[in-house]
């Protein structure tokens, strides 16, 4: 990895047309660098009010800066038609952690403690040795009960 490359751990969620928004998001994120996506997990809404969410995570290795990544992620949410506040979420992308190496990541304090819908997909990829040879495959969908 170059001195300018960083790894970004991202959590993705959608409960409104999730297949559509995840396909677009996976394609867009794949253009930003080397990436590995977790499987997709269908998990009930945290507050029990909204529809079930599709949840996934990815590790992105990129030469983009932290500020650039944050701006791109917010634009992706806006472009999806994301409305705040709402229980109908087209796309939510959270920057969970970043760093030069998975063993020395800085966690976003606003996202701690990590929620279950972040931990499950993140666990699927965090220690995956395949990340060293990044893949661009679309994940499988799992219901939470299958986890």
From TrEMBL:
This entry's Enzyme Commission designation comes to: 2.7.6.3
Descriptive protein name: 2-amino-4-hydroxy-6-hydroxymethyldihydropteridine diphosphokinase
Q: From the UniProt record, which GO molecular function terms apply?
A: 2-amino-4-hydroxy-6-hydroxymethyldihydropteridine diphosphokinase activity; ATP binding; kinase activity
Q: Name one Pfam family in it.
A: HPPK
Biological process according to GO:
folic acid biosynthetic process; tetrahydrofolate biosynthetic process
Span of the secretion signal? none
Looking at the record, the residues that make up the 7,8-dihydro-6-hydroxymethylpterin-pyrophosphokinase domain are: 10-128
Which pathway is this protein engaged in? Cofactor biosynthesis; tetrahydrofolate biosynthesis; 2-amino-4-hydroxy-6-hydroxymethyl-7,8-dihydropteridine diphosphate from 7,8-dihydroneopterin triphosphate: step 4/4
Q: What is the lineage of its organism?
A: Bacteria, Pseudomonadati, Pseudomonadota, Gammaproteobacteria, Moraxellales
Q: Which InterPro entries match?
A: Hppk, Hppk_sf
Looking up SUPFAM superfamilies in the UniProt record yields:
6-hydroxymethyl-7,8-dihydropterin pyrophosphokinase, HPPK
